[in-house]
Amino acid sequence: MVRMSEPSPAPAPAVPHRSGFACFVGRPNAGKSTLTNALVGTKVAITSNRPQTTRHTVRGIVHRPEAQLVLVDTPGLHKPRTLLGERLNDVVRTTWAEVDAIGFCLPADQKLGPGDRYIAKELAESRKTPKVAVVTKTDLVDSKTLAGQLLAVDRLAAELGFEWAEIVPVSAVDGSQVQLLADLLVPLLPEGPPLYPDGDLTDEPEQVMVAELIREAALEGVRDELPHSIAVVVEEMTPREGRPADRPLLDVFANIFLERPSQKGIVIGPKGQRLKDVGSRSRTQIEALLGTPVYLDLHVKIAKDWQRDPKQLRRLGF
Ligand SMILES: Nc1nc2c(ncn2[C@@H]2O[C@H](COP(=O)(O)OP(=O)(O)OP(=O)(O)O)[C@@H](O)[C@H]2O)c(=O)[nH]1
Question: Measured from the CB, is residue 68 less than 6 Å from ligand 1?
Answer without folding.
Answer: no
